[in-house]
Amino acid sequence: MFLPFVLVSFLYFAEMSGMPKFRRHREGFLILGYTREADEVFKRNKESNDEQSVRSKPLEEVRKDAIEVVKMRKGDVNNDLDVQGEYLLQFGRCRGQSFRWMLENALGYAGWFVDNIRNEKVSHK
Questions:
Q1: For the chain, how many helices (H) and strands (E)?
Q2: For residue 33, which phi and psi values (nearest 5 degrees)?
Q3: Cys-Cys link to 61, which of 52, 57, 98, 120 (CB 3.0-4.6 A)?
Q4: Percent of the chain beyond pLDDT 90?
Q5: What are the DSSP calls for 83-105, one per residue?
Q6: Which residues, other chains included, contact 118 with Cβ-Cβ below 8 Å and sequence gap of 6+?
């Protein structure tokens, strides 16, 4: 599936290029816990899930929006990992946030997310 490759590749690319900014303890190991901002996003998404059904954007629109974000921060729009890092998640606790944001604010959730996608059974209907 496309998502685990993107996230694992982005994790590698992020470490190599210095982005995103991973939170670390004084001893240097990564902080897997959530930021206050992540807790607020999780709560808001849970409440909006209870209130209404949310439709996902088409991939083309998600990509176009991500390219605009990369342009605004003067990133490399020709680098697929840079662009895919700005894709907004269309479901789950981090819905409406980018992969990059998820890595910076909810690294433990990102790990859980990738693990679940890797273990997901693909159905061909």
A1: 6, 0
A2: -70, 170
A3: 57
A4: 40
A5: HHTTPBP-SSTTTTSBHHHHHHH
A6: 4
Whole-number Å distance between alpha carbons of 88 and 97: 5
The domain limits of the chain are 2-119
Distance between CA atoms of 95 and 43, rounded to whole angstroms? 11
Answer positive or negative: Cα dihedral of 91, 94, 97, 100. Answer: negative
Banded pLDDT at 13 (limits 50, 70, 90): low
pLDDT for residue 15 is more than 50: no
For residue 95, give Cα distances in angstroms to 4, 17, 107: 16, 25, 15
Residue range 45-82, pLDDT digits in tens:
888 765 556 788 999 999 999 999 999 988 899 999 88
